[in-house]
Fold G-protein coupled receptors family 1 profile domain-containing protein.
Amino acid sequence: MTAHQNGTISSEVSGFLLNCFVRSHTWQLSFSLPLSLLFLLAMGANGILLITIRLEASLHEPMYYLLSILSLLDIVLCLTVIPKVLAIFWFDLKSISFYACFLQMYVMNCFLAMESCTFMVMAYDRYIAICHPLRYPSIITDQFVAKAAIFIFARNVISTVPIPILSSRLHYCRRNVIENCICANMSVSRLSCSDVTINRLYQFAGGWTLLGSDLILIFVSYTLILRAVLRLKAEGAVAKALSTCGSHFILILFFSTILLVFVLTHVVKKKVSPDVPVLLNVLHHVIPAALNPIVYGVRTQEIKQGIQRLLKKGW
């Protein structure tokens, strides 16, 4: 029990309960099967892609190293979110400790920002490949990938640290039921008895600064790529140039579309079921992760051939 200056007494919260789909309990069982299949697909496909890139010498190139970083981020995001959601669905294990909740919050925010940053670096890689092909080997080197990886890690690890710190420093009394499947920042913060204005402002400013700047740079890169491609006059050059960017552009659409729909449902949350944002929040951590390696595996001939060679060796 804790006494406050105004004389009121409240009990401190030592843990939280994740209340998934509180208004639609039937969703849990019907949703758990496709979610578990998506999780297995994401883990398996990303694992195969990482092994293929690691063992195939022909794939030891900067573009595939960047793809490896993306796969690692997807695996961590899936492991951070989906096992806990499935444990809630199957075993009703809704409780999560105070520190585990804020750790999950940090990893989700940090790694989603890292993924966005990786897409931005990959867009720059495609821009150099299409717009400055002769300079590509001298610009996009192994050293470039190493520096890019350090930048991706440092920028997002540092910039997202305040999110869980600000939330953990709030005073939580009486209410401890999070109306979400995961420890999303604002889902947790709104349980607090304290003023959460700073939390909202930092989440908004940080999100638009990190993700917004990445999307703007990606848009600029693809605008320049499109302009360069339209100038190509050689037969088949346009199709070949667009093909090299197609996989990456599809991945960005997966990532940004779900994120955009999630934001829009929050804006019009009074007109949609409260379960819809919760569902989208969960899906955003698994659908891109499941589709990313498949899109690259299907559309990139070198990766497809690398997987086939590994399978033949396995047999």
Remarks:
- Residues 1-11 have pLDDT under 50 and may be disordered.
- The longest strand covers residues 15-18.
- The chain is about 75% helix and 5% strand.
- The chain has one domain: 12-314.
